[in-house]
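step=encode ok
step=design start
structure_in=
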């Protein structure tokens, strides 16, 4: 094969390779365009999950502060009304997604601890039990061994991407529940996990 023929063969091979590369580059562009909406949706989904995770953590922090403050105040003053005041104030001092946490007092029900509803956002009662995993919260009993306060809340969180792809998304909800106790007399408030909840 002569030098000229070799050069022609190389040029032809180069043109064929260049055409193949251009075809592949065009195919990659099509894949990027096709996968773009799916990738964007996955990114939005990940951001929303992170937003909900953060909101739930903020809600738990607010409820913990409220329960700990309320149970300490209840032990110090023996006043269910003041304990509820403290729970409301300490919860409102915290925010979830920029909004203060407002708890319903759940009082006026009469009875030993003046709970209006067993499923209320602030429930006062006695906590019994010695082991970490077997505490009983009794909303029907006046505290003997330990004062107990339960705080709970369901909170609406506005999505970060309210109008994803033109479709409005409704609010998400996060919920949390916390129990705190103060042993009598003069115990320090602490968070506990209860195994049983008693309330009529």
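sequence_out=
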């Amino acid at each position: 094969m002569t030098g000229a023929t070799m050069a022609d063969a190389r040029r032809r091979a180069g043109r064929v390779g260049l055409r193949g590369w251009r075809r592949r580059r065009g195919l990659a562009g099509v894949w990027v365009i096709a996968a773009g909406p799916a990738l964007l949706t996955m990114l939005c989904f990940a951001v929303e999950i992170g937003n909900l995770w953060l909101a739930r953590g903020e809600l738990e922090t607010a409820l913990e502060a409220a329960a700990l403050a309320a149970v300490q105040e209840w032990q110090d003053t023996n006043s269910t009304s003041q304990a509820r005041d403290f729970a409301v104030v300490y919860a409102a001092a915290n925010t979830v997604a920029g909004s203060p946490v407002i708890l319903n007092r759940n009082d006026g029900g009469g009875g030993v601890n003046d709970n209006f509803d067993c499923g209320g956002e602030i429930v006062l009662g006695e906590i019994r039990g010695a082991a970490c995993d077997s505490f009983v919260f009794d909303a029907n009993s006046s505290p003997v061994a330990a004062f107990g306060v339960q705080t709970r809340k369901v909170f609406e969180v506005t999505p970060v991407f309210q109008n994803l792809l033109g479709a409005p998304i409704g609010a998400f909800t996060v919920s949390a529940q916390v129990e705190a106790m103060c042993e009598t007399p003069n115990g320090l408030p602490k968070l506990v996990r209860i195994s049983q909840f008693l309330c009529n």
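step=design ok
step=annotate ok -> The chain has one domain: 3-198.
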